[in-house]
Amino acid sequence: MTSRTINASVAVIGGGVVGAAILHTLAHRGVDAVLLEGDTDLAYSASGTNSGVLHTGFDSTAGQLETELILRSAKLRPEVLEALNIPVLHAGAELVPQRDEDNEVIRALFENATANGVEVHLRESDGALLVPGESVTDPVAYTLGLARSAEAAGGRIELQARVTGIDQSADGLTLHLADGGVVTTRVAINSAGLHADDVARLVGDDSFEIYPRKGEFFVFELPERKTLDHIILPVPTKRTKGVLVFPTLDGRVVAGPTAVDGEDKNDWSVRPTARGEILDKAVVQFPALRGLDPVAAYAGLRPAGRDVNYVIGSSPACENLINVAAIRSTGLSASLGIAAYVADLLPGLGIETTEQKPTTPIENVEAGGLWWQRTADRYSASI
Ligand SMILES: Cc1cc2nc3c(=O)[nH]c(=O)nc-3n(C[C@H](O)[C@H](O)[C@H](O)COP(=O)(O)OP(=O)(O)OC[C@H]3O[C@@H](n4cnc5c(N)ncnc54)[C@H](O)[C@@H]3O)c2cc1C
After folding, report:
1. What is the average pLDDT across 257-267?
2. H or E element, residue 108
3. Are the C-beta atoms of residues 56 and 74 closer than 8 Å to each other?
């Protein structure tokens, strides 16, 4: 078999939701772009193993790049969702105070949300914070939808195209693939998730490090007559948003995730202790889960930056490599904003862009079952 030879103005490395959104935006701004995904399909990594919640940014810290891009995404998303036929449960979220000190946190969240321009309400009866704009989607369908629409607008996608080497020259970059293929390009965008630091090192850039922060989930079927019609968010701590309980598009209920820092980027197992850790918290928030056995379990690995978050910009070692790394906890929600931000950097590197065209509509995406099933099957995580 002869190896692939590809030429493109821009090569996007990594086909999670961030890479797919970037390809989507570039294709709609008239840029000749190719997406290189090392795996056999898109969204098998963090983008296929998350909570699927489209956050509004109500609790994000004002002034941070992450917040700016979540809010920018929220403005871009309705037009895209409609064109892609992406299923979304507009469920809204509730944070109910469990202890006295939670009331102060909720008050601060209310003010934060208002400063960010996100609609929230305080419920008089119990002091709960209501966030009507929070919604749940299928993150795999979302990623595949962006990719299909990008292709319809002229973007290209190469699977099993793992980048293992990068050479720099006066004309741009030559990327070497694991199977012997070669990609020549002016600019490469490094959206390789957990492996973004490995990709950056290919040009001698060791300016950041990515480690896996594991999040485990359990999927439940509720007994007849019990339903959950909104997302239950715990009152957050500084480190994590905590264990949520949320409805899925197919009528199940998911509880999770945990937040466990690790070293092994290939460890997608669910720890034996995770069930107790999650259920102890989840049943307090949603007592209908008490005594139920989960029907499935899965784990996701957040691409966490060591002491950094949202590292976006040209690599210090190679101007033509744009790092889009350490998109740890909100990449599904922020992906369209990230993509627009990255596309805005391209003219500065000599890549012409046009005004963004309306999203190319596509039919319903066949995502091969809901994401939790795809993930649970692939990694055979034990309950
Ligand atoms: C437990 C958990 C819960 C979360 N909940 C939410 C949530 O509710 N809402 C939200 O907005 N966000 C959530 N997130 C965060 C979100 O999932 C991530 O921010 C987002 O998926 C990151 O996307 P990415 O494209 O950067 O990385 P990834 O999805 O990890 O994609 C990177 C891709 O790069 C590929 N790749 C790696 N190396 C190479 C190479 N050398 N060559 C080619 N390809 C390569 C990989 O195969 C992979 O497909 C959660 C994450 C986790 C794990």
Report:
1. 96
2. helix 100-115
3. yes
Pair of tokens at residue 292: 């139920």
Separation of CA 224 and ligand 1 centre (Å): 35
Structure tokens at 240: 């994590």
User: Residue 222: what pLDDT?
Assistant: 95
Check residues 372 and 166 and name the one with the higher pLDDT: 166
Segments making up each domain of the chain, as ranges: 5-55+140-209+308-379, 89-134+211-305
Residue with CA nearest ligand 1 atom 22: 331
Based on the number of CB atoms within 10 Å of its own CB, is 251 exposed (0-12), middle (13-18) or buried (19 or more)?
A: exposed
- Using one digit for the tens of pLDDT, what is the confidence trace for 319-367? 999 999 999 999 999 999 999 999 999 999 999 999 999 999 998 787 6
Q: Outline where DSSP puts E strands in 14-64.
A: 33-36, 53-54
Would you say 246 and 218 are in contact if contact means Cβ atoms under 8 Å apart? no
Cβ 84 vs Cβ 75: under 8 Å: no
347 CA from centroid of ligand 1 (Å): 26
CATH 3.50.50.60 corresponds to the domain 5-55+140-209+308-379: yes
Regarding the beta carbon of 285 and ligand 1, being less than 6 Å apart is answered no
Testing ligand 1's pocket by substitution, the residue of 47, 59, 146, 159 carrying the most ligand atoms inside 8 A of its CB is 47
Please classify residue 294 by burial: count the beta carbons closer than 10 Å to its beta carbon, then call 0-12 exposed, 13-18 middle and 19+ buried: buried
CATH of the structural domain 89-134+211-305, one choice from 3.90.1150.10, 3.30.9.10, 3.40.190.10, 1.10.4080.10: 3.30.9.10
DSSP H helical ranges for 188-303: 196-201, 274-285
